[in-house]
Design brief:
Blueprint lengths: L2 E5 L3 H13 L3 E5 L2 H11 L3 E5 L7 H10 L8 E5 L6 H8 L3 E4 L4 H17 L11 H33 L5 H24 L2 H7 L3 H29 L5 H19 L52 E5 L3 H13 L3 E5 L4 H7 L4 E5 L5 H9 L9 E5 L4 H10 L3 E4 L4 H17 L7 H5 L4 E6 L4 E4 L1 H7 L4 H7 L3 H4 L4 H14 L1 E10 L5 E12 L5 E10 L1 H9 L1 H24 L2 H6 L5 H4 L4 H7 L8 E5 L3 H13 L3 E5 L2 H11 L3 E5 L7 H10 L8 E5 L6 H8 L3 E4 L4 H17 L1
Parallel strand pairs: 1-2, 1-3, 3-4, 4-5, 6-7, 6-8, 8-9, 9-10, 16-17, 16-18, 18-19, 19-20
Antiparallel strand pairs: 11-12, 11-15, 13-14, 14-15
Helix pairs in contact: 2-3, 6-7, 6-10, 6-11, 7-9, 9-10, 9-26, 27-28
Organism: Chamaesiphon minutus (strain ATCC 27169 / PCC 6605)
Keywords: Phosphoprotein, Two-component regulatory system
InterPro entries: CheY-like_superfamily, HisK_dim/P_dom, HisK_dim/P_sf, PAC, PAS, PAS-assoc_C, PAS-like_dom_sf, PAS_fold_3
């Protein structure tokens, strides 16, 4: 008996249709929102999905895209069900990945015919062999290459904007600082997107190919990237000459990132810079397996006062093969008062022989290429020279290996200037305080973060003073004597400890694991932990080791944002209600109830025609900008105002429709990906209203996919442009639309 997953949030419709389908010989399972639909498709593997498009939590379009993006569910046919019979709805559903489309009220014979047609290949033909999982080695290589392309320009955007904020200082040129802070925040947003969507653990667990995620990643990157490019272009026109070089670095880096992002939608056959053939790869082998963190955990961490000033006579060697990132790091270090020497990885020993240094900043790379140099340094005459390693945030495994070999400390990129200064000061202070014969035990004892080793049964084998202080115990002996079961004594929720042990057993490493812990006095605190498994020669788990930091302040800040989120959700609900009332008011039935309801339209020129007749005499012309991203809205509205336009802003499709009616702008710039009511539907409503039908609309979208222009024009848009916005081109299209509007 074929199984149908019916995704419908209306109780009555769901009950009615499921019963009718069961009468026709189908087994029916139900889901009430898009998130539940994705989960049940993966867990229950139905033969077909009937997907309502207007769903809570996750709408039908997004749910369909997720189902079709998963190798395990992508072959399941989906029929879109919607009450919207608007032009373009079928094409929109098919573009999201639906295999068929039907309208409500349901015509059951017609729907059953479509179900039978889609199920026919499954029933008649033998089942296709299961898709083989993606080659994990190939996926890891592709991931590393893509991150290698994406990370440097992102790091430069964040680094140079942070450097500019440091140069300007507090209170100087507040408007300029505000714009640079927006660039910095957008750079951090891009970094978060890349880290989240290209998470190697996520790709491994879901057995997904990296190429499935890259088109979505491109779309997500383009909005904050548009913000960065727009603000840079504004600031390059008005900033003082001493700031121009750093702004140009940000702008160039943003263009480099745009070039990589635009390549993410290209087919696999194209030779993209991050795609490679396994046969052309020669993986570098670094023999580190014989090194065990359990043997000498005392090597792990640096000591020293974070408040120690950096002496101006200290020389720092930057070892990095990437010239652009080493130049940025050099600027940051010189800004803090140290002398800098730059070297490539293969020239470090020659440089050290010619120029004495007090500290090395070593980029270990995504494949760990710098670790081989670190191991050589710690075995030779420079073994007592402190090394601060730099790594991508998702390569904590390489960081732990670097610490094991003998690195004094580490930084994950990108980093704030103040954090770099603190780490350098601590390492230089370490170098000053330590003699060549000082044991590594002092490093362990004076580590600024909690460090421990524990048995698999949940007893601490060794702890450092920082962990004792963090947990509030009188001394290390008391801590190890009292904590005979970490799950019971330390964890507030024993289930979290079970989750931790499971992840550690399966993956040997756990990064950024967060949980609530009890202090000695019983007060709970929030902790983030990085840990690794220790195994014997037979591969049996014998212990685990971890780095522990308190994150209570961050968790409190996140909790403080919850009331604001609830208020925002209430505001969105009110906006939706207002929009629904506006739709009722615009119906023909309601208009006929109003006195003289048709006179204003039938009795002569329409309000829009009156508006057209005055376009040439009323300056400035009014543009309605419909954009949900606050930074992009601010940036583009300011640039349009500089070009001589009056700008009205709406943050979602429903507000865009309302303001088109109330403001009667001369032109509308309509973002397509909008909340509440997307740009396609907002455009159709504006064009369906006699008061606003003649207002020209230019669609703005980051999609830039084949057929998007035709789709925008079919929805009623007069023109189409892509993000990031190229202002001269957009101004030309605005002028052209206004001229055509006046002449008509």
């Amino acid at each position: 008996m074929p199984t149908i997953l019916l995704v419908e949030d209306n109780d009555i419709n769901r009950d009615m249709l499921s019963r009718r389908l069961e009468r026709n010989g189908y087994q029916v399972i139900v889901a009430v929102n898009g998130t539940e639909a994705v989960a049940k498709t993966l867990s229950d593997r139905p033969d077909i999905v009937l997907m309502d498009l207007h769903l809570p939590i996750l709408d039908g379009w997004a749910a369909t895209r997720q189902i079709k993006a998963n190798l395990q569910t992508r072959v399941i046919p989906i029929i879109a069900l919607t009450a919207d019979g608007n032009a373009g709805e079928r094409e929109k559903a098919l573009a999201a990945g639906c295999d068929e489309y039907d309208t409500k009220p349901v015509d059951l014979p017609r729907l059953l015919q479509k179900i039978t047609k889609l199920l026919e290949p499954v029933i008649v033909t033998a089942p296709a062999p299961p898709n083989s999982p993606p080659d994990p080695r190939l996926q890891q290589i592709l991931l590393n290459r893509l991150r290698h392309q994406l990370d440097p320009p992102i790091d430069r955007i964040i680094g140079y904007s942070d450097l500019l904020l440091d140069l300007l200082g507090d209170g100087q040129q507040p408007d300029l600082c505000s714009d640079i802070q927006k660039i910095h925040a957008s750079g951090l947003r891009i970094l978060q997107l890349v880290q989240a969507m290209l998470n190697p653990v996520l790709l491994e667990l879901q057995q997904q190919e990296i190429n499935i995620f890259t088109p979505t990643l491109r779309l997500e990157i383009l909005t904050p990237l548009s913000t960065i490019i727009g603000y840079c272009e504004m600031l390059l026109e008005e900033a003082s000459t001493d700031l121009i070089p750093d702004l140009e670095q940000i702008y160039t880096s943003a263009q480099d990132l745009l070039s990589v992002a635009n390549s993410l939608d290209s087919p696999l056959a194209e030779p993209l810079p991050w795609r490679i053939d396994l046969q052309t790869i020669s993986l570098q082998s670094i023999d580190l397996d014989n090194l065990s963190l359990a043997k000498d955990w005392t090597r792990s961490f640096s000591v020293g006062s974070a408040e120690s000033p950096i002496a101006t006579d200290r020389r720092i060697l930057i070892a990095d093969d990437n010239e652009s990132t080493s130049q940025l790091l050099s600027r940051q270090v010189e800004r803090q008062g140290s002398q800098v020497t730059i070297s490539t990885i293969d020239r470090v020993f020659d440089t050290l022989a010619a120029i004495p240094c007090d500290l090395i900043l070593l980029e270990i790379g995504r494949t760990g290429s710098g670790l081989q140099l670190l191991a050589q340094l710690k075995q030779g005459e420079w073994r007592h020279l402190p090394v601060l390693i730099l790594a991508a945030p998702d390569r904590m495994d390489l960081v732990l290996r670097g610490i094991e070999i003998g690195a004094a400390d580490y930084l994950t990129k990108p980093f704030q200037s103040v954090l770099l200064q603190t780490k350098i000061a601590a390492c230089l202070e370490l170098q000053r305080r330590q003699g060549q014969d000082e044991s590594f035990d002092s490093l362990f004892e004076n580590a600024p973060v909690g460090v421990y080793q524990a048995t698999v049964t949940g007893c601490y084998r060794r702890v450092n003073p920082a962990l004792v202080e963090l947990l509030g115990y009188p001394d290390a002996e008391t801590l190890m004597a009292m904590v005979t079961d970490i799950a019971d004594r330390i964890y507030v929720d024993r289930n979290r400890y079970a989750d931790f042990k499971t992840m550690l057993a399966e993956h040997d490493r756990v990064t950024g694991f967060e949980y609530q812990a009890y202090r000695y006095d019983g007060d709970p605190i929030w902790i983030a932990e990085h840990a690794r498994a220790v195994r014997d020669r037979e591969g049996k788990l014998v212990a685990y080791e971890g780095i522990v930091e308190e994150i209570s302040q961050r968790k409190l800040a996140e909790a403080a944002l919850q009331p604001q989120l609830a208020a925002l959700q209430l505001e969105l609900a009110n906006i939706k209600l207002t929009q629904q009332v506006a739709e009722i008011v615009q119906t023909d039935y309601f208009q006929q109830l109003q006195p003289n309801g048709e006179a204003s339209i039938a009795g002569g020129a329409t309000p829009m025609e009156d508006r057209d007749s005055s376009l040439q005499s009323s300056l400035p012309l009014k543009v309605l900008l419909v954009e949900d991203n606050e930074l992009n809205s601010d940036m583009l509205s300011r640039r349009l105002q500089r070009a001589g336009y009056a700008v009205v802003v709406a943050s979602d499709g429903a507000e865009g429709v309302a303001k088109a009616i109330s403001e009667l702008p001369d032109l509308i710039l309509m973002d397509i990906s909008l909340p509440i009511l997307d740009g396609w539907e907002a455009t159709q409503q504006i064009k369906a209203n006699a008061q606003t039908a003649r207002i020209p609309i230019i669609a703005l979208t980051a999609h830039a996919m084949a057929g998007d222009r035709e789709k925008a024009l079919a929805a009623g848009c007069n023109d189409y442009d892509t993000k990031p916005v190229e202002l001269p081109r957009l101004l030309g299209k605005i002028e052209g639309c206004l001229k055509r509007s006046i002449s008509n």
